[in-house]
UniProtKB/TrEMBL annotation:
A GO MF term: dihydroxy-acid dehydratase activity
Textual note on the cofactor: Binds 1 [2Fe-2S] cluster per subunit. This cluster acts as a Lewis acid cofactor.
One GO BP annotation of this record: L-valine biosynthetic process
Protein name, per record: Dihydroxy-acid dehydratase
HAMAP family documented for this protein: IlvD
Species whose genome carries this gene: Ahniella affigens
Pfam families, sorted: ILV_EDD_C (PF24877), ILVD_EDD_N (PF00920)
Residues annotated as binding Mg(2+): 78, 120-121, 441
Organism ancestry: Bacteria, Pseudomonadati, Pseudomonadota, Gammaproteobacteria, Lysobacterales
Length: 547
């Protein structure tokens, strides 16, 4: 056992003395030590249930021969930080959560772990830690929030962000904005569309780090506690089999995860996070690898932000298993081992799915959209590539004058003041991993564009990133970023920008060659943001941090 390093032999008496003080006796110390890690926080509805859920995992571990040790890590809640300087902390937290898990698990030589996760960055961090530590690991997602009901219609946090734009444009009054705010989030759970958390939870299952079906259970579902117990049991089974995280994290698993991302028109953050997880797992994955997969995968799930349904309806319709089965039957999925089964195909075959109450998942033959929910572009504005979101619209080309903003707040203020016109290309730069720093999501701006009614006429390009709730013709992750000398820094107001999805190009007709870059002063001089700005890589590499 790894944990023998801290607990076996005469020299380890001091460590054992300390463990006894926490209630572990000789019998407990003879068993494998299993970490139960969770980012519980009552700032965040996404993580609100995790501490209680962890107790069920603990029971599952202890009933199956393990000694459980619980510790917590942090979370930054995007939906709360959005549009403020606090949003810079979000992506950064992914690295720090991963590192904190590594430090606590390795610091105590623990043998296996169950990681619970909820809000966006806690999910890739769980997978990154699993890949980095390569010990037997099961990851359990706390689950989606239920949708709210507003005037009898299901709504999510997406509609609140869009209502802000509608309110600024005078389309709704303050009372209506307040009513949307009150109706949108009825209880605990992570944001309810195929936004980042639900996208990443599905990716965990596709990667084989979570068993089928558990992540789809909404946060307040009656079966969630049993699922948590079962995950505790499962990690002991993985431990007995010697099944470690990297045995699940094969190249085929990553290809499946990219398919599921494309097939559900999920969050473009999935691209960033898969690159980072692959890096930790030692699997070669490049930004360019995503494009052919998305191009050859139809969107088969009719989910918000582009579609009609939320994760609650998807769960009732069979969830990830149904999406995976349709892809498998269409020859678009590959077999690989998972935490629960030597073959994900066998696990899918063993899963009974009834009729869908609502037509959330379509057959391959009549998809929601013939191609996947994103594409990878490059061009003279993005020599190292970028990601365009294709959820919920059919726009494949836009040509228009640049409206350049050195940061998100200036763009948001111009939009709310009615200064963005149909046809414009909103350019938001110096919001990349190093520039912002922390590559914030731009949901405030993208949702306000939709709410204002400009969603079909304006395009947006940025070296920042998008929320899972963003839809419309939005291009993010532009690499290299402006703060690291990327050509976005040379654009001027009025330059023509061309987004050409068919040809996978993002260009300007302006002659950038002789032009200087607009001067940029690093925003963070000290603390964690400054440290991160020095260490972080390009978005085209998943914004991983390197020593
Ligand atoms: C919806 C939020 C808050 O923007 C985020 O959770 C995401 O999906 O990226």
């Amino acid at each position: 056992m790894r944990s023998d390093t801290i607990k076996k032999g005469p020299d380890r008496a001091p460590a054992r003395a300390m463990l006894r003080a926490t209630g572990r006796d000789d019998a407990a110390m003879a068993k494998p030590f299993v970490a139960i890690v969770h980012p519980w926080s009552d700032v965040s509805p996404c993580n609100f249930t995790l501490r209680a859920l962890a107790q069920h995992v603990r029971k599952g571990v202890e009933a199956n021969g393990g000694t459980a040790f619980e510790f917590n890590t942090i979370a930054v809640t995007d939906g709360i930080s959005m549009g403020t300087p606090g949003m810079r902390a979000s992506l950064i937290s992914r690295e720090w959560i991963t590192d904190s898990i590594e430090l606590a698990v390795n610091g105590h030589h623990l043998d296996a772990m169950v990681v619970l996760c909820g809000c966006d960055k806690t999910i890739p961090a769980a997978a990154m830690a699993a890949a980095r530590l390569n010990i037997p690991t099961v990851v359990l997602y706390g689950g989606t929030i239920d949708h709210g009901l507003h005037h009898g219609k299901p709504i999510t946090i997406q509609e609140v962000f869009e209502a802000v734009g509608a309110h600024a444009a005078g389309k709704i009054d303050e009372n209506e904005l307040h009513a949307v705010e009150k109706d949108a989030c009825p209880g605990a759970g992570a944001c309810g569309g195929q936004f980042t958390a639900n996208t990443m939870a599905m990716i965990l299952t596709a990667l084989g780090l979570s068993p089928l079906e558990v992540n789809d259970l909404p946060a307040l579902h009656q079966d969630k506690n049993q699922a948590a117990f079962d995950c505790g049991k499962l990690v002991m089974d993985c431990y007995q089999r010697g099944f470690t995280a990297r045995q699940a994290l094969t190249p085929a698993a990553f290809r499946n995860a990219m398919r599921m991302l494309a097939a559900t028109a999920g969050s473009t953050n999935g691209v960033l996070h898969l690159l980072a997880i692959a890096h930790e797992a030692g699997v070669t994955l490049d930004l360019a690898d995503f494009d052919p997969i998305s191009a050859s995968t139809p969107v088969i799930a009719d989910l918000k932000p582009g579609g009609r349904y939320t994760a609650v309806e998807l769960s009732a319709a069979g969830g990830t298993a149904r999406v995976a089965k349709v892809l498998k039957d269409g020859g678009l999925l590959e077999d690989h081992p998972t935490v629960e089964n030597a073959s994900i195909f066998a696990a899918l075959d063993a899963t009974e799915l009834g009729e869908q109450p609502e037509p959330v998942v379509h057959p391959i033959a009549s998809p929601v959209k013939p191609r996947g929910g994103f594409a990878i572009l490059s061009g003279n504005l993005a020599p190292e590539g970028c990601v365009v979101k294709l959820a919920g619209h059919g726009r494949m080309r836009h040509e228009g004058p640049a409206r350049v903003f050195n940061g998100e707040p200036a763009a948001f203020a111009a939009l709310q003041a009615g200064k963005i016109q149909a046809g414009d290309v909103v350019v938001i730069r110096y919001e990349g991993p190093a520039g912002a720093p922390g590559m914030p999501e731009m949901l405030g701006v993208t949702a306000a564009l939709i709410g204002r009614g400009l969603g079909s006429d304006v395009a947006l390009i940025t070296d920042g990133r998008f929320s899972g709730a963003t839809h419309g013709l939005m291009v993010g992750h532009i690499s290299p970023e402006a703060a690291r000398g990327g050509p976005l820094g040379q654009l001027l107001d009025g330059d023509t920008v061309i987004i050409d999805v068919e040809n996978r190009r993002l260009d300007t007709t302006a002659d950038l060659g002789p032009r200087p870059t607009t001067p940029f002063n690093p925003r963070a001089q000290s603390g964690v943001l400054a440290k991160y700005a020095r260490l972080v890589s390009s978005a085209s590499r998943g914004a991983i941090t390197e020593a």
